[in-house]
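dumping this here before i forget
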Amino acid sequence: MSTTSPLKALLATETSAAIPRISAAQMLEAPENAELRAIWTDPPANPSVYAGKRIGVIATDGVEEIELTTVLHFFRTRGATVNVIAPEKPSYPAFLGLQIPHIRATHILTIHFIETAGWIAFDRTVGEVDATTYDAFVVPGGTWNPDTLRADGDVRKLLQDAAEAGKIVAAICHGPWVLSDAGLLKGKNATAWWSTQPDLEGAGATFVDAPVVVDGNIVTSRAPIDLAPFVNSIGELLAAAQ
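structure:
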């Protein structure tokens, strides 16, 4: 059944953005993103292709919603167990003025570029996770999300342990910031959101401007428009590990 009309109807409600935002409807309507649209509208050819595989998606507040939800949708509809893993609800000294709502104890806040989107429940905290129990870890982007994660020593340690154990470690958009700060990109080919090129190169990576770059068990991509090759490349590594 054609999805063009529902997409156009959704797009029609988004014609006057109040702030800079990413419109998922506009992305999926664009012919350049047909492969990404198919992930959301077409049933998978094999709904059990990743049965038995476990994927941990590491994210916190400010995660780009379409990057998080596309990873969840793609692998869950193909049989994988996918957990959202987040740092515990933070607390700050009163003089900083930072306020964190109670819902953050169980959920993280997603964004559409710089527009706040909605809350999504996480399954595990970083401290509850053992790297060896997952086949792959994925770090989605947004800017706030990875900038917070890369300052978290427990997150960096989890990714270091995963890489040392030979697990797949993947990141998209600004997500490779976390990998670079964890020391995982030194001597690797990698890509990311274009403005982070100096950061990756400073961490010892060779920056490649491509939709997806696979170097060993490290998978990186640039932006939401690269989500289809990103998840497919992770899937290929998962299948090869069987």
